[in-house]
Design goal:
536 residues; mainly alpha; two-stranded antiparallel ribbon
Length: 536
């Protein structure tokens, strides 16, 4: 494939790798790391003969001002010349040579969608490593070249797919990029952000080069950058424009009309695109409509579709035959009730976007904790979002914490799996300390949790404390809450106070359980009996 050289006007060019200074040869070598490699310069002669490392790369022609002798070994001038090569220009021209795909085969809209997918994956990866939302957004904003590189990897790894015009699904993009990012993290560790932001320049060398350049380099002024909207916002605006652009017929785009007819408000569609810009580029017939019709065939009410798409627009990027349906079949094997798919998907749309390994890891943990196959099925069906919890970072530490209190973890997982999504420090420990401070032992707390698993899911300031303070005004002993911790699950204003006022008014006695858990009719019947008994 023909490639383009990077040259400056009126500059003399080096076209032989034999004239490449040793410091630059060492520099290019640093781009190679085991089986993974970042785009690296390749030097070729005018006849097209390649001299360099690795796979075929585009010809890179280094240039120096006309009339200037080639720099000597380790010359800082050479470093400055190397640094002055526009790395983004080089990268863009390198893309086709590496992937071997004619750019005309990949529509611009598809490339734009893949870039947004790559950004979303990189953002999640950075957040998983501890970056805040704001920090991840800043990194993404500085990483256009690296995002291009990730898209290039997709084109290279899945070359055969692109050659026949088949798009990659969201899962396929993720499964291609996540292992690569993990490899880079293992290789670069704490300087991974530098790699991402300064790609393709190797960050390890940068400080050394800067020091040399400060001492003896010929300064080349950097191109001025005019103030503009940040790249990430600009791309979001482009995606949003696809929502509101009017076609030549005077109508909104067909996919927007379709979504509006489903019941999605135009502003809701825009909000989805703000969070996930790639959704704006999904085709109606190829992606959105097939998934929507599939969900409706499963029994999902049409009125639920807008909520599902708002929660997980990535569903429309998943291949039905290659990913979504096989994942559903796999989940059914793991225990999800196939008759409940409509409810499961509505409760947690992201469930179908997780990898098989992620699903297996979570289910294995449930079995490890002592759940039966039947109870695993119930947990996955009633609380499918448990799949989203990381086993080693969230589920296991929470299990260990409750075990330290003497709680039967299998029972708690079965009755209230949502408890395992709470923070130990911010949610669980404060609740435990609250009950300890109010005179309950660890054994009593364990009993309360085992009897009412949702106990720890309630807000301490907005639920537990106000109800506890009212409990102290009643005639019941503290042990009554150990017997009936469900007390904290009833509305203070609509249930607890009104019923207690009635019981007190008639001067009768009822167990806390009887006063609150009975239906209105049964409560009145029991009240009449107690009143009659008192009168006799």
């Amino acid at each position: 494939m023909a490639t383009n050289a990077i040259v400056c006007t009126h500059n003399r060019r080096w076209t032989s790798s034999h004239s490449l200074p040793s410091f630059l040869a060492a520099e290019t070598a640093d781009y190679h790391h085991g089986s993974r490699r970042l785009p690296t310069p390749i030097i070729s002669n005018d006849d097209g003969e390649r001299r360099g490392f690795g796979r075929a790369r585009p010809r890179l022609l280094l240039s120096i001002p006309h009339g200037t002798a080639p720099p000597a070994k380790n010359s800082p001038i050479g470093l400055r010349i190397d640094a002055s090569i526009p790395r983004q220009t080089f990268f863009c021209r390198a893309k086709r040579a590496e992937s071997g795909i004619d750019g005309s085969l990949v529509p611009p809209t598809l490339i734009a969608a893949e870039k947004e997918e790559a950004k979303a994956i990189l953002t999640l990866f950075l957040k998983k490593q501890g970056s805040s939302n704001a920090a991840a957004a800043r990194i993404i904003n500085k990483s256009d070249a690296f995002i291009d590189h990730l898209v290039l990897r997709l084109h290279s790894v899945h070359k055969s797919r692109y050659l026949v015009g088949r798009e990659l699904t969201t899962l396929e993009i993720r499964d291609s990029l996540i292992p690569y990012l993990e490899t880079l993290l293992e290789e670069y560790g704490s300087i991974l952000v530098d790699v991402v932001e300064n790609f393709p320049e190797p960050p390890v060398k940068r400080k050394t080069e800067e020091n040399v350049q400060k001492q003896n380099a010929i300064e080349v002024p950097a191109p001025s950058v005019s103030p503009s909207i940040p790249a990430v916002d600009s791309k979001k605006l482009k995606a949003l424009a696809r929502v509101s652009d009017i076609t030549p017929t005077g109508k909104l785009p067909s996919h927007i009309i379709y979504l509006v007819e489903l019941g999605m408000e135009l502003e809701a569609i825009k909000e989805v695109i703000r969070k996930f810009p790639a959704f704006a580029y999904y085709s109606l017939e190829g992606k959105i409509k097939p998934v929507v019709e599939f969900l409706i065939d499963l029994g999902v009410p049409k009125t639920h579709i807008p909520t599902i798409l708002s929660k997980r627009p990535q569903l429309c990027g998943i291949s039905l035959t290659e990913n979504l349906i096989p994942t559903m079949a796999f989940l059914e094997e793991l225990g999800v009730d196939k008759k409940q798919w409509a409810k499961v998907i509505y409760r947690f749309p992201p469930l179908l976007t997780y990898s098989k390994q992620k699903l297996i890891t979570t289910v294995d943990f449930l079995y490890e904790m002592g759940l039966s196959a039947e109870n695993v099925s119930k947990v996955l069906t009633r609380c499918p979002n448990i799949i989203s919890y990381n086993v080693e970072d969230k589920l296991r530490p929470t299990a260990v914490y409750f075990q330290s209190l003497g709680v039967d973890v299998a029972v708690l997982l079965h009755r209230a799996p949502q408890t395992f999504g709470l923070s130990i420090e911010a949610n669980l420990k404060p609740v435990t300390e609250f009950f300890l401070e109010n005179g309950y032992s660890l054994g009593e707390i364990a009993t309360m949790v085992s009897r009412y698993g949702a106990l720890y899911t309630f807000s301490l300031p907005e639920n537990l404390k106000p109800k506890w303070e009212f409990f102290l005004t009643m005639v019941y002993p503290k042990s009554e809450l150990v017997k009936f911790p469900q007390y904290f699950g009833y509305s203070l204003e609509d249930r607890i106070k009104p019923r207690y006022e009635i019981v007190r008014k008639y001067g009768v006695e009822m167990l806390l359980n009887q006063m609150l858990s009975l239906s209105e009719d049964d409560f009145r019947k029991l009240l009449d009996k107690r009143v009659q008994k008192k009168a006799s």
